[in-house]
Amino acid sequence: MINIASRFLDINNFQRAWEKVAENRGCAGVDGESIDSFARNQTLNIYQLLNAVSNSTYQPLPCKQVIIPKKNGTQRELKIPTVRDRIVQQALLNVLYLLMEEKFSPVSFAYRPNLSYINAVEKIADWRDMGYLWVLDADIVKFFDNLDHNRLLQEVRLHIDNPGILCLIKSWITVGVLTQEGVVLPQKGIPQGAVISPILANIYLHEFDELVSATDLKIVRYADDFLV
Questions:
Q1: Rounded-to-integer distance, Cα 130 and Cα 77, Å
Q2: Residue 59 contacts by C-beta under 8 Å, 6 or more apart in sequence?
Q3: Which run of H or of E encompasses 173?
Q4: What's the pLDDT tens digit per position in 56-100?
């Protein structure tokens, strides 16, 4: 059994998390702090961040709204956490990967180490070559925008029985987004653009993977897109 809290609240884990966030670059959040400005005092900043989380004084800031135009003329809204919030989320993600990779179904291919859409396509080709010819091609409409918070936290609790970590996750999904009209607090959904969101999405759909896999149907899922 992995001791989630001790591995999460380890200075080396926070250092690795910072390195990953720095490597990904990305823009500053609502506080205006960039990767470069955090880096100028990175050792002190990392210690202060770890201490704040350990002492339960850490509070995430609202996400920054970024609107991305899509080819079909619609828009996609990204919600970008601050650099500090991304580091804490990455530190937890480092530990969650270790825990959840042992549990996730082999039918799930998105947001997982050493897997990509190419592996999903190869698996679909395998089923075709074995004689499966009828396909249901589906996706969950506005999946990230509509996740039920209570159900998500219930699913997470099945794998992590740590009140402090559960409170952290709840704070990240309910923190809201700063728009031109002010801070909008969500009643549902998780922020696309947050480091922690992809693994939360997979945890949310884990039961779905298992239920379909327990039947004679074959499923291949990539995030909110899936083939049966």
A1: 40
A2: 171
A3: helix 163-174
A4: 999 999 999 888 887 887 777 789 999 999 999 999 999 999 899
CA distance 22 to 1: 30
For tokens 């945890």, the residue is: 203
Cα–Cα separations (whole angstroms), residue 15 to 80, 83, 123, 126 = 21, 13, 36, 41
Q: Read off the pLDDT of residues 17-59 as tens digits, 9 standing for 90 and up.
A: 999 999 998 899 999 999 999 999 999 999 999 999 999 999 9
**Cα(175)–Cα(33) distance, rounded to whole angstroms?**
18
Q: Which amino acid is at 159?
A: H
Residue 177 phi, psi (nearest 5): -130, 140
156-159: list long-range contacts, CB under 8 Å, 24+ apart.
Answer: 156/200, 156/203, 159/99, 159/100, 159/103, 159/203
Transcribe 175-226 into DSSP letters. S-EEETTEEE--SS---TT-TTHHHHHHHHHHHHHHHHHTSS---EEETTEE
The token pair at 129 is 């070559």
pTM of the model: 0.91
Is 11 in contact with 47 (CB distance < 8 Å)? yes
